[in-house]
Amino acid sequence: MGNLNSDALVFFGATGDLAYKKIFPALQAMIRRGHLNIPVIGIAKAGWNVDQLRARAKDSLEKHGGLDSAAFEKLSRLLRYVDGDYADPVTFQALRKELKESQHPAHYLAIPPALFGPVVEHLETSGCAKSARVIVEKPFGSDLESARSLNQILLGTFDEKDVFRIDHYLGKRPVHNMVIFRFANAFMESFWNRNHIESVQITMAENFGVQGRGAFYDQTGTIRDVVQNHLFQVLCNLAMEPPVRTDSESIRDEKVKVLKAILPLEDKDLVRGQFRGYRKEKGVAPDSKVETFAALRLHVNSWRWKGVPFFIRAGKSLPVTCTEVVARLRLPPTVIRESALTQNHLRFRISPEVAIAMGMTVMASGEEMIGQSVEMLASRHPQPDEMDAYERVLGDAMAGDATLFARQDYVEEAWRIVDPILKKVTPVYEYEPATWGPVEVDQKVAPEAGWSNPTIATETPVATAVRAA
Predict the structure, then answer these.
(1) By CB neighbour count within 10 A (0-12 exposed, 13-18 middle, 19+ buried), where does 373 fall?
(2) pLDDT classification of 468: cutoffs 50, 70, 90
(3) Of 7, 374, 414, 427, which residue is 20 to 30 A from 295 by alpha carbon distance?
(4) What dihedral angle (degrees, nearest 10) is formed by the CA atoms of 162, 166, 170, 171?
(5) Is 230 a catalytic residue?
């Protein structure tokens, strides 16, 4: 389909939770910016009509992000609705009729992966897939085999360049900002390699549990839910080589190379945990062995990173909600006594606020040659007019820009790394809520100087500041 803009957006699952919480607010935001002026056709099996879909959209906007009367009025005019079963060819004949003069639709499958097969097949037989794009939500399978099966289904009808696999995490501005910071600042290249970096750690902490989604979570677990997708994307942004061009394929080539350089995960490089009380959650098996916490050590065997361990940990019911990266630098060969030194570090905070900090040693108060750790910090809170992740990724997909989307080979390489360990029975250690996971983490999978636990600052964010670390 090339780089033509899509001339209609069809979204399957229009009455579902994702549409209610994320899609309608994203569509209204796109209209406010002047980025959406094409028919939006919702499809579901709810016995609804278009007026009920409009009412659902209005309710969604009132609860999630705020109703803008003028933008909502325009969205209402753009909204259309097809009611029917995804397994019924009649539904897709009705869709073909509702598309009217549209020649290049984008089909957004906000539905369970089990339904992809019949939907894609009916899109093809009805003629709705011709010159079209398809946008699919994660999860892209539950292991390597199922990911390959899903890709076969999609690529049986659509070309890879027309398949957009959403990982909304890549649409987040701070995640993308790491790439800009790395490649737009000359000083980074001097130390961002195995000669100066001792270890890199990525933490994604949530201070809440499964929030009523026990049945879903008990089929998924932390590794499948956020590590194999979101946090691998962060790792790739940190470890990739500079792309030779800024087109989507050049950037995605470099990300795939990072994953190709990582060996499959082994038992000795993983600790899984489960918070006390998880098994009492609705929908969770009373003897569940599903992890709500995972810490792992990966090695990127590339020229830049060989020998530098990358640590990833993620979990629920931890002390804070925060995502950040800490890269520790090696100690310098200095005459200052080593006991007075702390390692320099670079810290990227992705949420709740955006921050980039350099940790360094300066002379402490007094006349002795004793060092004190300080951080030079640049931070900012998200601005009200910034694009939400879903607004960005939907807009990019409809414009044909694949930069922020996972390619087939990327998805399969990511599964290759975690697949062996997911198929094994490994221990699950219990941990108390509001702690940093099971004690076994510090004994088995931890950076040499220990994990850096994020804290949530209470001070007002400033553009730049220096403070004691």
Answers:
(1) middle
(2) very low
(3) 374
(4) 90
(5) yes
Distance CA 344, CA 361 (A): 7
pLDDT in tens, 341-391: 788 999 999 999 899 999 988 877 766 667 778 899 988 777 777 888 999
Helix-strand-coil percent breakdown of the chain, rounded to 5?
Answer: 40, 20, 40
Identify the H or E element spanning 74.
Answer: helix 69-78
Six token digits for residue 305? 């990173």
Q: What is the dihedral of CA 354, 359, 365, 371, to 10 degrees?
A: 170
Q: Which one, of 78, 76, 94, lies nearest residue 86 by Cα?
A: 94
Q: Which of 104, 107, 230, 345 is catalytic?
A: 230
Phi and psi of 27, rounded to 5°? Answer: -65, -40
Decide if 100 contacts 93 (C-beta within 8 A). no
Is the peptide bond preceding residue 243 cis, with omega within 30 degrees of 0?
Answer: no
At residue 412, the pLDDT reads 96
Tokens of 282: 């609705």
Residue-wise burial string across 158-174, b where 16 or more C-beta atoms lie within 10 A, e elsewhere = beeebbbbbbbbbbbbb
What confidence score (pLDDT) does residue 369 get?
A: 66
Q: Mind giving me the DSSP string for 154-205? A: HHTTS-GGGEEEE-GGGGSHHHHHHHHHHHH-HHHHHHSSTTTEEEEEEEEE
pLDDT tens column, 302-324: 999 999 999 999 999 999 999 99
Residue 407 near residue 250 (C-beta atoms within 8 A): no
Given a contact cutoff of 8 angstroms between Cβ atoms, the answer to whether 120 and 154 are in contact is yes
- DSSP character at residue 241: P
